Amino acid sequence: ETGVTQSPTHLIKTRGQQVTLRCSSQSGHNTVSWYQQALGQGPQFIFQYYREEENGRGNFPPRFSGLQFPNYSSELNVNALELDDSALYLCASSPMGLAGVEEQYFGPGTRLTVT
Amino acid sequence: DQQVKQNSPSLSVQEGRISILNCDYTNSMFDYFLWYKKYPAEGPTFLISISSIKDKNEDGRFTVFLNKSAKHLSLHIVPSQPGDSAVYFCAASVTGANNLFFGTGTRLTVIP
């Protein structure tokens, strides 16, 4: 059974650019959540995708957007990057929609640095 | 607005002793609480959880205590082992919601 994978591992972008982060969910999981973990902070919920639709969103501006594909993999897109977007971006997958938050399995994250 | 707080950034404990990690929350709507452990270069992994209808949940060496009136929970690890050295995150949620609110984490170091 393959766990949650994320790519790339590290990324450096310039302020104002756009970035796409990718996540492959664990086998059998149809729900993907994205979190932002700034340095010294805990992860903060960005949004969740269930069956290719956004299913809940945290306090993040619209320049943070996402997609989920028929194979349940997901992308996080961030437009007009700001310096404060520098963070570890975590993807978590879970089975069968709202099965319980403890069912969320996290990937290793993508470290984004905005200069 | 940090709804889940872990006021101790770090904790060092001797191997074999008890580790106690603390967490406070402000939102009285939270009814489910979790602890996650995170090693470097890995995502958080679920450790143990507790529902608000309980005040204690045990799983092997790990016990979580919940004090609803104080809006406080704690994770006890007994006995502590060097492999327990990691960052521990407390998280909370509302039943039916799909997101977790995390604390800022406590780095536990177990000294052999």
Write a brief caption for the model.
The complex is a heterodimer of chains A (115) and B (112). Chain A has 115 residues and is mainly β. Chain A contains no helices and eleven strands.
Write up what this structure looks like.
The complex is a heterodimer of chains A (115) and B (112). Chain A has 115 residues and is mainly beta. Chain A is built from no helices and eleven strands. In chain A, strands 2, 4, 5, 6, 9, 10 and 11 form a seven-stranded mixed sheet that branches. Chain A has a four-stranded antiparallel sheet with strand order 1-3-8-7, with no helix packed on it. The model of chain A has no long low-confidence stretch (mean pLDDT 91). With 112 residues, chain B is mainly β. Helix content of chain B is 0%, strand content 54%. Chain B has strands at residues 4-5, 10-14, 19-25, 32-38, 45-51, 56-59, 62-67, 72-77, 86-93, 101-102, 106-111. In chain B, the strands form two sheets. In chain B, strands 2, 4, 5, 9, 10 and 11 form a six-stranded mixed sheet that branches. In chain B, strands 1-3-8-7-6 form a five-stranded antiparallel sheet, with no helix packed on it. The mean pLDDT of chain B is 95. Chains A and B meet through strand 4, strand 5 and strand 10 of A and strand 4, strand 5, strand 9 and strand 10 of B.
Rounded Rg of chain A: 13 Å
Shape of chain B: globular
> What count of helical segments of chain A does DSSP give?
0
List the uncertain runs of chain B: none
Largest sheet, strands/sense/barrel of chain A = 7 strands, mixed
| Rg of chain B, Å, rounded | 13 Å
Q: State the helicity of chain A in percent bands.
A: under 10%
Share of residues in helices of chain B: under 10%
Tally of strands of chain A:
11
How much strand of chain A? over 45%
Please state the average pLDDT score of chain A: 91
What is the residue-mean pLDDT of chain B, rounded to a whole number? 95
